[in-house]
Amino acid sequence: MQGVNYLIAAYAVAWVGLFIYLAFIVMRIRGVRTELAAVQELVREQQEKTQN
Amino acid sequence: MALTKPDTSVRQQDTPVSTKRSAGFPLASLLLGGLALGGMLITIWMAFLYAPTDAVEGPPQRIFYLHVPVAWVGMLSFIILTICGVVYLWQRDERWDWAARASAEIGAVFLSLALITGSIWGKTTWGTWWTWDPQLTTTLILWFMFIAYLMLRSYMGRTAASARSGAVLAIIGVIDVPIIYESAVWWRTLHPPKEIGVAGALPSEVVLTLMVALVSFTLLYSFLMIQVYQLQRAQTLAERLRALVE
């Protein structure tokens, strides 16, 4: 029975670990997209100021 | 999304970073993601219901279908990291450096999982969580190589010097990969030797399950590579645009 517990523990650790890593990647992608949009807006504003 | 004026194009190491997304990646990403997910579900079914229970080790032997593929992806990641590093040193195209960074990050995660699952399996089989066995020790050295690479790249930032140093570290570290692979042959070790390809060593169901698991985890690695590569690219672009406006 203890062997089954170890089996469950190994699969649980691996799958939870992989899902946490996937969630971490998704959060970082969202964060960098938001940052990119904000910085590109700043660049656009600077360009408009230079043109005027 | 695309900037209109040429003075906003961002360059480093003579490689322009376009703000447009690569058209081929979303489709490849979707395809690989779907295949990886399907493969994982099949792997779980095969590992628990198709493959026979080991007569000696019992149910914990099924950790094998998880431990071997994650360890394989960990080692594959380091080989890909080194190839990307070498091509970067040759071509000085930072897209190879983004791929190297992506592979290092993914490899560190998978090798950590390999060490954890191996440790759990070791507890059931050897009665200990860890032993300074040659294969375990060389795998731990590779894990430290990944950590050293990630720390170095994080400390040095997104510069050409950082990319060069990372590539050199990868070239040194990759020597450990064949040592891990052959350690069970070269030294007396507790770790089970290679049994794939040896006639009669493993039942065909076990070999088939392991092969499906290896393919599925390799697909997952490919899927993650695309995501993290795109992330590296976007982070580089954001950093350079920020430098322009500051």
Number of folding domains of chain B?
Answer: 1
The helix-and-strand class of chain A reads mainly alpha
Uncertain stretches of 5 or more adjacent residues of chain A = none
Structural class of chain B: mainly alpha
CATH architecture of chain B: Up-down Bundle
User: How would you characterize the largest beta sheet of chain B?
Assistant: 2 strands, antiparallel
The largest sheet of chain A is: none
In the CATH scheme, the class of chain B would be: Mainly Alpha
Lateral arrangement of strands in the main beta sheet of chain B:
1-2
Helix proportion of chain A:
over 70%
Greatest interface and its participating residue counts: A-B, 28 and 39 residues
Which series of helices and strands of chain A comes N to C?
A: H
What Rg of chain A is obtained from the alpha carbons, in whole angstroms? 22 Å
**Over all CA atoms, what is the radius of gyration of chain B?**
21 Å
% residues in beta strands of chain A:
under 5%
Report the CATH topology name of chain B.
Four Helix Bundle (Hemerythrin (Met), subunit A)
What does this structure look like?
The complex is a heterodimer of chains A (52) and B (246). Chain A is 96% helix and 0% strand. With 52 residues, chain A is mainly α. Chain A has a domain at 18-52. The model of chain A has no long low-confidence stretch (mean pLDDT 90). Chain B contains seven helices and two strands, in the order ββααααααα. Chain B has helices at residues 24-50, 64-91, 94-125, 134-156, 160-173, 176-186, 204-245; strands spanning 10-12, 15-17. Chain B has a two-stranded antiparallel sheet. In chain B, a hairpin with a 2-residue loop joins β1 and β2 (15-17). Chain B is globular and about 65 Å long. The two termini of chain B are 20 Å apart. The chains are: A mainly alpha (52), B mainly alpha (246). The A-B interface holds A 2-4, 6-7, 9-11, 13-14, 17-18, 21-22, 25, 28-29, 32-33, 35-36, 39-40, 42-44, 46-47 and B 1, 3-5, 7-8, 19, 57-60, 62-63, 66-67, 70, 109, 112-113, 116-117, 120-121, 123-124, 220, 224, 227-228, 230-231, 234-235, 237-238, 241-242, 244-245.
